[in-house]
Amino acid sequence: MPMCTIRRNPTMNAGQEGFSLIELMIAVVIVAIMVAMITPQLMRASARAEATACSGNVRTISAALAEYQLLHQSLPPGNSTQQIQALVGDGLLSNDALQGSYVIQDTDPNNIAVSCAANGNGAGGMNNGSGD
């Protein structure tokens, strides 16, 4: 029976295992650069999403105010929070509307302004209370 010998692969060096410190540092620097480039984009996307949500909520609150005015021939009494609570109480808004911060300016019942105070940029919408 012939004897079989096992040979080591000459291309593998016994002293070279894993990554060197330089290779690891380069990988960390590349990841840090990528994070630095992506973070501002994510922040802008978050701000755009907040502004879009605010705009949609302002339209919904404006429509609910118009419907309340048609049903009751007046606007809900009180400050903005109390008015939104009245709209929720009448079933014209969902409870989600209570989570935001909105300002309802209703000094002129024919020109009601609803704005979103959550993002501080004055984004908002107008509702003409006359039903036009």
Automatic annotation (TrEMBL):
Extent of the signal sequence: none
PROSITE patterns: PROKAR_NTER_METHYL
Localization terms from the record: Cell surface; Membrane
The protein, known as: General secretion pathway protein G
A cellular component annotation (GO) from this entry: membrane
SUPFAM superfamilies with a match to the protein in the record: Pili subunits
Natural source organism: Alicyclobacillus sacchari
Topological type in the membrane: Single-pass membrane protein
Alphabetized UniProt keyword annotations: Competence, Membrane, Methylation, Transmembrane, Transmembrane helix
Any GO BP annotation: protein secretion by the type II secretion system
Chief site of localization: other
Membrane-spanning parts: 20-38
